């Protein structure tokens, strides 16, 4: 047998070809790169820096310090030193506050994505590059297969997706990990090994330990990545069908709720009807992931029989109203409280962009209006035209609060007279109601 060749580093031409097929970059592109300090993310930072610089653009490396290990702050500083030595700007983002005692990896991932997206918005950067590669994609498919996922789960991670104010791109998704290690070695770049990657307490680490046995049975990374690509192709077709269905069945309102005619969903193939319902829940509820399939199927069955009482699912209230459904945010689930000052913008509850104009003064807290807040809002504006809003949609609107109480409900045009606040609110859900289908990297190398 011939000896196995050492993996080759990723060339700039290879990387440029992958960026070209992702498309959508400005003439002098600015990118943020999530850099954990591992070989994968450092290879991505080096490649992205050379690519952007060649087009008159720039890269900002972003490292999230979760504060979960005593050495994490020193590691983040080391990453910054490495990048600075190569002329790459860098910032450390810290996950502050209490950490959950269970589900720590999921919570850390959600916090990381939020911190990265917020920094991109603050910097005016439109693209966030992440270093997920072919081996990560294979692990994702296996994990989702073990959890009973359908086509959507088996499609794995998308090479490009919108995430609020930023576009997340994964240009390395078809490249194996060992080529990224080779890229670092070729450029004389050291890296940090994360001990959690070998911790058997985590499912991904257990899968990595079983890699050889799985490969011997044909479940190697290449085959699993091919499975993801084919499932993504099916998912894209189904999502296009669901989007067409929603175009005639749903009306979306700027206060963040949907009026849905269930009849077209019930007349369509069940898979399309289910997908259309899930998309409504994701748009209104703002959740990063859809509800469990079993729960959606139960709700859909009730809708088929004629929903008679309200239901709660995916952070939403689903209410029957005149042979149609009202889907609104569940007020009790809109728990986010965020500080904001004049001139600042934030993405609140993963649903609304709240922007304070710079001419005001003072600090405010953005939190849900609630029923008590609605009573205060009526006192400020007894003639409000918001009476026709569904109660949960009204109660879950973002409101501005200060030391004196309710200062404004910008989405309803209600402002306390003596307050100097000047604000705008826009409904900007994490996914569009009928947006582009799941992107697929075709076998020919393009995005479809």
UniProtKB/TrEMBL annotation:
Span of domain tRNA(Ile)-lysidine/2-thiocytidine synthase N-terminal: 31-209
Protein name (database record): tRNA(Ile)-lysidine synthase
The enzyme's E.C. designation: 6.3.4.19
UniProt xrefs under CDD domains: TilS_N
Family note: Belongs to the tRNA(Ile)-lysidine synthase family.
Catalytic activity: cytidine(34) in tRNA(Ile2) + L-lysine + ATP = lysidine(34) in tRNA(Ile2) + AMP + diphosphate + H(+)
Domain notes: The N-terminal region contains the highly conserved SGGXDS motif, predicted to be a P-loop motif involved in ATP binding.
Top-level taxon of origin: Bacteria
Broadest EC class assigned to this enzyme: ligase
Keywords: ATP-binding, Cytoplasm, Ligase, Nucleotide-binding, tRNA processing
Subcellular location: Cytoplasm
GO terms assigned for molecular function: tRNA(Ile)-lysidine synthase activity
Entries under InterPro entries matching the protein: Rossmann-like_a/b/a_fold, TilS/TtcA_N, tRNA_Ile_lys_synt, tRNA_Ile_lys_synt_N
Main location: cytoplasm
Source organism of the structure: Azospirillum rugosum
Function per UniProt: Ligates lysine onto the cytidine present at position 34 of the AUA codon-specific tRNA(Ile) that contains the anticodon CAU, in an ATP-dependent manner. Cytidine is converted to lysidine, thus changing the amino acid specificity of the tRNA from methionine to isoleucine.
Binding-site residues, ATP: 36-41
């Amino acid at each position: 047998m011939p000896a196995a060749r050492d993996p080759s580093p990723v060339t700039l031409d290879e990387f440029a070809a992958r960026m070209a097929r992702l498309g959508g970059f400005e003439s002098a592109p600015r990118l943020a790169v999530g850099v954990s300090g591992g070989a994968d993310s450092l290879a991505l930072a080096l490649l992205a820096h050379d690519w952007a610089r060649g087009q008159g653009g720039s890269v900002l490396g972003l490292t999230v310090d979760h504060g979960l290990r005593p050495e994490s702050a020193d590691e983040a500083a080391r990453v910054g030193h490495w990048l600075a030595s190569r002329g790459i700007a860098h910032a450390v983002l810290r996950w502050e506050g209490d950490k959950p005692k269970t589900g720590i990896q999921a919570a850390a991932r959600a916090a990381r994505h939020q911190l990265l997206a917020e920094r991109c918005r603050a910097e005016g950067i439109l693209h966030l590059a992440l270093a997920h590669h072919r081996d990560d994609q294979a692990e994702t498919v296996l994990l989702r297969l073990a959890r009973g996922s359908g086509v959507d789960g088996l499609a794995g991670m998308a090479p490009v997706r919108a995430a609020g104010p930023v576009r997340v791109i994964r240009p390395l998704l078809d490249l194996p990990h060992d080529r990224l290690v080779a890229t670092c070695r070729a450029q004389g770049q050291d890296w940090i090994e994360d001990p959690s990657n070998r911790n058997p307490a985590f499912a991904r680490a257990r899968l990595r330990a079983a890699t050889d046995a799985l490969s011997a049975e044909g479940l190697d990374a290449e085959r699993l990545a091919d499975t993801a690509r084919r499932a993504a192709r099916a998912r894209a077709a189904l999502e296009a069908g669901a989007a067409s269905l929603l175009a005639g069945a749903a009306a979306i309102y700027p206060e963040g709720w949907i009026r849905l005619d269930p009849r077209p969903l019930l007349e369509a193939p069940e898979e399309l009807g289910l997908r259309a319902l899930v998309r409504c829940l994701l748009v209104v509820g703002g959740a990063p992931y859809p509800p469990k399939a079993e729960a959606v199927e139960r709700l859909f069955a009730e809708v088929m029989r004629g929903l008679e009482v309200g239901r709660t699912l995916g952070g939403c209230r689903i209410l029957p109203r005149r042979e149609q459904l009202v889907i609104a945010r569940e007020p009790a689930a809109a728990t986010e409280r965020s500080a904001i000052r004049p001139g600042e913008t934030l993405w609140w509850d993963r649903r609304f962009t709240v922007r304070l104009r710079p001419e005001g003064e003072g600090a405010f807290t953005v939190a849900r209006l609630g029923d008590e807040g609605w009573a205060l809002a009526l006192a400020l504006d007894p003639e409000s035209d918001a009476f026709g809003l569904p109660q949960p949609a009204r109660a879950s609107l973002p409101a501005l609060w200060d030391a004196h109480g309710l200062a404004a409900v910008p989405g309803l045009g209600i402002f306390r007279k003596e307050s100097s606040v000047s604000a705008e609110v826009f409904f900007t859900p994490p996914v569009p109601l009928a947006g582009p289908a799941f992107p697929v990297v075709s076998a020919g190398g393009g995005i479809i």
